[in-house]
Write a structure and sequence with these properties.
about 200 residues, alpha/beta, Nucleotidyltransferase, domain 5, 5-stranded mixed sheet, two-stranded antiparallel ribbon, 8 helices, 7 strands, about 45% helix, globular, nucleic acid binding, RNaseH-like_sf, RNaseH_sf, YprB ribonuclease H-like domain-containing protein
């Protein structure tokens, strides 16, 4: 009974970030979505921040700071390719001298990360381990589709065109996070333990 009560207080979230480039020394974070299990998504978007509104779209320091602060409230983080992309990207941006960084705050290395890419590589055998491929295989439909130029428009365009592009990118991110939460339910049998010690 004590163990069950202990597990109930563990906070588990799925999250995703969208960026302007795959390399964090060149790219910037455009937006992020964090969703705690059973709750509505929390949305972070760059164009809501003061630096962006003042014309400095390349300063994502406060956006990154807010995302990391939110992630660090939780015990278990779930992100597709999160081990090799999302977490390292955020940590790299956290130390950016050009945008001021986050004052040294990084994604808590003690937070437990569940990465469906790694689960698929270890326990399954797909032609490739993209979120779209795995979702389709488990009968969860497909992830949302956004034309590649939308990420650049979200960063480089102005006015209404920029806002519409960012809206598309954010919606894409929301759908991916919701789908990811559903996918983890399907992969649960490959994750025998999710508790204060993380997963195995």
């Amino acid at each position: 009974m004590a163990k069950r009560q202990q597990e109930e207080v563990i906070s588990i979230i799925t999250f995703d970030i969208e960026t302007s480039n795959l390399s964090a020394d060149f790219g910037r974070v455009l937006c992020a979505v964090v969703k705690q299990v059973g709750k509505k998504p929390i949305i972070f978007r760059g164009d809501n921040y003061a630096a962006w509104k003042k014309g400095n779209k390349y300063d994502d320091s406060m956006l990154v700071l807010d995302i990391i602060e939110e992630l660090n409230k939780h015990d278990v983080l779930i992100a597709h390719n999160g081990m090799k992309f999302d977490r390292p990207f955020l940590n790299t941006r956290a130390y950016s001298g050009l945008s001021g960084g986050t004052g040294g705050l990084i994604v808590n290395p003690r937070s437990k990360m569940i990465d469906p890419v790694l689960i698929a590589r270890k326990h399954l055998r797909f032609s490739y381990n993209s979120l779209a491929r795995i979702l389709q295989h488990f009968g969860l439909g497909s992830k949302s589709s956004v034309e590649g130029h939308m990420w650049l428009r979200a960063l480089l365009a102005t006015g209404k065109e920029q806002r519409q592009a960012m809206d598309e990118v954010v919606e894409h991110c929301i759908v991916d996070v919701v789908k990811l939460e559903q996918l983890v339910g399907k992969l649960r049998k490959f994750i025998p333990r999710i508790d204060e010690y993380g997963s195995k």
